[in-house]
Amino acid sequence: MGQHLHNRVNRRELKERMRHSGEPRVTLSYYKYVQLPDPQQFRDELYRIYAELGVLGRIYVASEGVNAQISVPESRFGDFKTAMDAFPFFRQMRLNIAVDDDGKSFFTLAIKVRDKIVADGIDDPAFDPSQTGTHLDAENWNRLSEEPDTVVVDMRNHYESEVGHFENAITPDVATFREELPLVADMLGDRKDRKILMYCTGGIRCEKASAYLKYRGFKNVFQLEGGIIEYTRQVQDKGLKNRFLGKNFVFDERLGERISGDVIAQCHQCGKPADTHTNCANNYCHILFIQCDECRERYAGCCSDKCRDFSMLSADEQKERAKTETFSGSRFGKGVYKAFRKSAQSLKSPGEAQK
Ligand SMILES: [Zn+2]
Ligand SMILES: [Zn+2]
Predict the structure, then answer these.
(1) Could you tell me the CA-to-CA distances from 252 to 71, 249, 277, 278 in Å, in that order?
(2) Is residue 128 one of the residues assigned to a domain?
(3) Over the chain, what is the mean pLDDT?
(4) Residues with active-site annotation
(5) What is the domain extent for residue 226?
(6) Pick from 144, 208, 277, 319: most CB atoms within 10 A?
(7) Reported pTM
(8) Ligand 2 centroid to 54 CA: how many Å?
(9) Residue 242, domain member (yes or no)
(10) What local confidence, expressed as pLDDT, does residue 255 receive?
């Protein structure tokens, strides 16, 4: 029998297996910008190695490099390091090990070939992504961000910064990185000589964003090395002051890791302080939103009465009715979250008016 380079067991079963498995796993992420002449061939090679090691997760491979969010069985971690070091460009690379982790972050192994590892929407050949900003460690980040004319910019999407961000950061109201790049440059306008400090989850987006701002004429561009994940690690290791408030949103089953005790967001259904992201339990909706514990119970994990009632129907009936019904979200695309958030804000406004 030939080797299988894809999962052959369905997702639900894999999820069950993971729930009942006591095997300790390490969740981590890494990225590497490196020229890969044959992304498909590299993808297949990586799949073979990771499948053998029992690595799970989501990995993107493109001719510009690799971006991975994975979990590795603790018992195979040494083998994993050895296998990675066999690729010269992976040596010396930082692995971002997750904090606040139960190891159940992924259920399958998916490695996909894409045009780019970070979609940037830039097609100007004069743009040079290797001209990045100056990398800062946590200590220097804290020092520079305290200076009065520094501008701190969050290079993530609105649903990420909503539950956690650096003190005094600008948090653009965008759903994709692609739309954020020109918007941030326009927003910063003529502040070309100011110190611009940018950050993201693990550093990968800032590699491009800092180069983009320099391309747009900004002179003092800095970026947080390794992003919020590495910052948190250094803050803990070195006993530095933590300037990040709330949760770090992550793209795995956990949806967020708590960095500070501050809860800076509100439940989208009742407006109470809450910062737990969830996907609507009605799978035909699946919208990403923030829900408090009481609303979770009241709506059975759904975004609305409509979705809750629908989720109680039999699978067959759901399938039939889904042909004509529409819900707040769809299974794909996090952009729909925006529509939901707007309606949540308008629900809240009467309460605010009473103050
Ligand atoms: Zn609520
Ligand atoms: Zn829903």
Answers:
(1) 10, 9, 11, 11
(2) no
(3) 87
(4) 200
(5) 134-246
(6) 208
(7) 0.77
(8) 34
(9) yes
(10) 82
